[in-house]
Amino acid sequence: MGRTHKSFRPQSAIMPPNLHLLAAAGITALLLIVQSSAAKNPQFREAPAFRNGKECSKSLWSNNAAVHVNATIHIAMTLDYSTPYLRGSIAGVLSVLQHSTCPENTVFHFLATPHHHPHLRRTITATFPYLNFHLYPFNPTTVIHLISSSIRRALDQPLNYARIYLPDLLPPTVTRIIYLDSDLIVIDDIAKLWQINLNSHVLGAPEYCHANFSHYFTSRFWRSPAFSTVFKGRKACYFNTGVMVIDLTKWRTHGYTEKLEYWMRIQKRYRIYELGSLPPYLLVFAGNVEGVEHRWNQHGLGGDNLEGLCRDLHPGPVSLLHWSGKGKPWLRLDAKRACPLDNLWAPYDLFRHEYLFSDS
Questions:
Q1: How far apart are CA 8 and CA 59, in angstroms?
Q2: pLDDT digit string, tens, across residues 311-335
Q3: Can you spell out the DSSP letters for 124-139?
Q4: pTM listed for this prediction
Q5: Cβ 173 vs Cβ 65: under 8 Å
Q6: Average pLDDT over residues 35-47
Q7: pLDDT in tens, 164-175
Q8: N or C terminus of the chain with fewer C-beta within 10 Å?
Q9: Where are the alpha helices (DSSP H) in the chain?
Q10: What is the mean pLDDT of the chain?
């Protein structure tokens, strides 16, 4: 006669209800501990303190100052807390400070979406405790209705267009600004770029007149005299908008934000270009730019906008390395597929990798 076996019931099936509650409470507590630990461990390592040399004049500028102080260098950048581009921005700031003769005279003006401001303020303060900086709210709704899709999704983000609104967002006491992209490092004293003479121009940037200018606009643009005659009488050359010196007073006086928006509206209706925020700048400014030495924007190190392959430096001296294009140094370094020039970016990377967290 066979023996009768009691059916097996998993332990979880007979767990008393109060134990389920205790287990859930334990998991919740563990998550809170992990989140608290993440908050206490900064995302970036703290940068050294950089001090002025003896030859530096004292900068007295503040947001409420009535006049512009010549000793102060104003730099504008965008900060995106939700993407790895923040890592590039942090490296860019460090590079400016490290190579400046008068780093304490540099004021950074950061544009970011308002809901990221608390996180960004904590991050910047923890990473650069001595940095003179201001955060300005950029609302994506300001421009999102004007943005057309381009050849790469990253180019369509509203923050890419925030530079158009710098004269409106910054206080009137800021009359001149250097705009820098988030994928570059400066390896020279930024004061040299700041001191260039814009003469009668609103904007200064390295120009590349050998580039095929027609490539930046569609055949529809060139076939239509209503569009293409915009360049009549202008020696229009390509320039990269990732590094610009801007006279904000002239910009405000002549309403260049509205002129850029005009061409973005034309683009929405007629599709006259494919490349994000650059073409409106070419339409408004090309042929009317104060040329800057090419050393101040060795761009294209990220390859093209489709494959992002490795590139070499252009011939000549270098003051600024710019990874414009699809390939970004932080992504290639993390993937162990770095291009040779990416190793020049690596020393400025303050990002705390996971293995650093485990040792803290």
A1: 79
A2: 999 889 999 999 999 999 999 999 9
A3: HHHH-TT-EEEEEE--
A4: 0.85
A5: yes
A6: 65
A7: 999 999 999 999
A8: N
A9: 17-40, 85-98, 117-127, 166-169, 190-194, 219-223, 225-228, 248-254, 256-270, 278-285, 329-334, 342-345, 354-359
A10: 87
